[in-house]
Write a structure and sequence with these properties.
644 residues; mainly alpha; two-stranded antiparallel ribbon; 52% helix; Baculo_p74; three-stranded antiparallel beta sheet
């Protein structure tokens, strides 16, 4: 009988643990400032972990179980925040401390890990940088671009835009708050952001709202935009700007900070035990059913490079049906219950004196007189209702057409956030309808002349928006934007919860040659497992066939060349074949042109067209040079586009 699938699964577990052991040993020698902070453990394997023959226990490579975890310290050391409010970090940038929002939280950007940990990506040529956060005892991979968008206002648009890129500070961040986010991160509006748009800030719901006095007085007399314009003028007179004071102040980190390159390289845990030392301290006998055995679930299935997934335009790994269904259910739950509560009229702080004053008005004659006038207005409005409806529709259409060109509306559509886009349209279009109602109603009395002027001015200001107050994000924008970014990370990694494990980290730190050595070692470990296996999982004796003496076989192959052969995948070979066929076609095309030129040269010599002879000889020389260039150049795309 032969080896079964179950036998191969057990062998892969045996191989995986020894490969992890070798990786920790090698990477600790190369990156002691990184791997010395890895939390890991080694113990003898038992039959509860995976099956192995008893004879294998006496081998120098007896079955072991290696468990590892990227702790908080290591997660912080490998994380990179590659952005500042003035632009991206560079190779010479020093770590800087900056405020996150206006609640006193601090963070660091341009850490030493940004340019001194991982090499450049071989496919794109870009520097590999990981942005991580530590949540629920796991190191989580997050989107660095969304972190920059939320914390650095200058990154929110390609060019400077009023009240988008010049906001005095970023949004506030809560690191372990969101129940439906795998990273636990949730961003909130803050008082500085609300003050930038002359709104009030609700401490409980973390949203901006219009004060009741501004809302009701604005809708009855002046207009909300006019009131805010007066506030902007007052602020400009006293401070020289219509925005609050700038809080985005970057400071160099302290001299003993672990994020400085020198300290980062010297930050080696002296208490770290090497794998060899831990292996030497293991007991000689196999433990009898130890408690709390939790073998590590590898991030990598087989021996593959997860680095390719994060940088492919279309990742090959995708979620299966069950995982996708669970993810969609979580997304629905998040959208319905996890988003920030909608703001209603009850959010505004009502003044009790205003309510008591309104009740007192019921006893005055002026109140009943105004009520009678109101009934008269209603009758007049009923007569012009059809005209009012048509005008409101036209104004709403014009408002919506202008709104399509707004930056924030485009962003909402690009992110697929229909609720956000709808909220923006309703907010702007409703202003037109309300203003039109007030203009029609106020035209029925003498005071209405002044109200007409004010409302027309309010409508004009809302349309032109000189203060760019319409650039304010809706209440749910931050949650929706963060959710879209996390979905993007899930799609790129092929994981519902992108956790940074040791396997994940090793695939970035190992070079191609080192990785190929581990591939060869995995074959050796697998052979050792099956060498000691006498009976397969079905209880049948394994038939190994005739014994082959390798010493009598002359392979005539260099070990290093054999390892290099393993560096190329099937996709690499396919690309090589496609490139090779292009070269052959280009060379054949040049040969055909040379044949035609040779025939033309002979005819020109016979007819004694010596000038044409010289031109043909030059052409043949150029084509010959191009022919040999095509055979030696790496990329033949331009030649193929020209000749084919």
């Amino acid at each position: 009988m032969s080896i079964t699938v179950l036998d191969k699964m057990n062998a892969s577990k045996y191989v995986k643990n020894w490969i992890t052991y070798d990786m920790i040993e090698l990477l600790h020698k190369k990156y002691p400032h990184i791997i010395s902070h890895l939390t890991y453990d080694i113990r003898r394997a038992t039959k509860k972990d995976f099956y192995f023959p008893d004879e294998l226990s006496k081998s120098p490579h007896y079955p072991i179980v290696v468990t590892s975890r990227v702790g908080k310290t290591l997660c912080e050391l490998i994380s990179c925040n590659p952005q500042t409010n003035s632009g991206p970090c560079t190779q010479t940038s020093k770590p800087q401390s900056y405020p996150v929002g206006d609640d006193g939280k601090k963070d660091v950007s341009c850490q030493a890990s940004c340019f001194n940990l991982f090499p450049k990506n071989e496919q794109t040529g870009h520097q590999i940088q990981l942005t991580t956060t530590y949540h629920k005892d796991q190191c989580i991979l997050i989107d660095g671009s969304i972190k920059a968008f939320m914390e650095f206002p200058n990154t929110r648009a390609a060019k400077p835009e009023t009240r988008i890129t010049d906001i005095p500070c970023g949004f506030n961040r809560s690191d372990h708050e969101h129940p439906y986010s795998y990273s636990g991160i949730r961003y909130h509006y803050n008082k500085t952001y609300c003050d930038s748009f002359f709104d009030e800030f609700d401490e409980d719901k973390k949203v901006c709202y219009v004060h009741w006095s501004k809302k009701y007085i604005g809708n009855v007399i002046l207009g909300e935009y006019i009131i805010k314009a007066c506030q902007a003028l007052d602020r400009y007179v006293w401070t020289g700007s219509t925005l609050p004071g700038n809080n985005m102040k970057f400071n160099d980190v302290e001299a003993d900070s672990k994020y400085l390159l020198k300290n980062w390289l010297e930050n080696i845990d002296s208490g770290f035990e090497t794998p060899q030392k831990k292996l030497d301290n293991l007991p000689a006998e196999i433990p009898q059913y130890p408690d709390n055995i939790q073998p590590e679930k590898s991030f990598i299935k087989g021996i593959s490079r997860v680095m390719d997934n994060l940088h492919k335009p279309k990742p090959e790994i995708s979620l299966d049906a069950d995982k996708r269904q669970r993810l969609e259910e979580k997304a629905k739950t998040y959208s319905n219950n996890g988003s920030r509560p909608k703001r209603s009229s009850s959010d505004s702080i009502q003044n009790p004196e205003f309510i008591m004053g309104f009740i007192t008005q019921l006893t005055h004659q002026e109140f009943w007189r105004d009520l009678a006038l109101g009934l008269g207005y209603d009758g007049a409005l009923y007569l012009v209702r059809s005209l009012l409806k048509k005008l409101a529709e036209k104004l709403t259409e014009k408002f919506a057409t202008k709104l399509i060109g707004k930056k924030i509306f485009k962003m909402a559509l690009e992110q697929g956030m229909s609720r956000v886009a709808k909220a923006i349209v309703i907010k702007i279009a409703s202003k037109a309808a309300i203003a039109l109602l007030k203009l029609t109603a106020s035209a029925l009395n003498v005071v209405g002349v002044l109200l007409n002027v004010l409302m027309a001015f309010e409508l004009l200001l809302s349309l032109v928006d000189p203060l760019k107050l319409n650039n304010k994000y809706p209440d749910d924008f931050l949650d929706d934007h963060m959710f879209a970014a996390e979905q993007r990370i899930r799609q790129e990694t092929g994981l519902v919860r992108p956790v940074v494990t040791f396997d994940f980290l090793a695939n970035y730190l190992l070079s191609q040659k080192e990785f190929s050595v581990f591939q060869v070692n995995s074959i050796i470990y697998e052979a050792e497992y099956f060498l000691h296996l006498r009976v397969n999982s079905q209880g049948s004796v394994i038939d190994r066939g005739e014994k082959i003496d390798l010493e009598k076989i002359d392979l005539n192959i260099d070990d290093y060349d054999f390892i290099n052969l393993r560096l190329y995948s099937q996709q690499d070979l396919y690309k090589y074949e496609v490139d090779h066929m292009k070269r052959i076609k280009v060379v054949d095309k040049i040969k055909k042109i040379n044949y035609i030129c040779t025939a033309a040269l002979i005819i020109s010599l016979v007819l004694q067209y010596f000038l044409l002879v010289i031109l043909i000889i030059i052409t043949i020389c150029v084509l010959t040079y191009v022919q040999y260039t095509v055979l030696g150049v790496e990329d033949v795309t331009e030649f193929a586009n020209f000749f084919l």
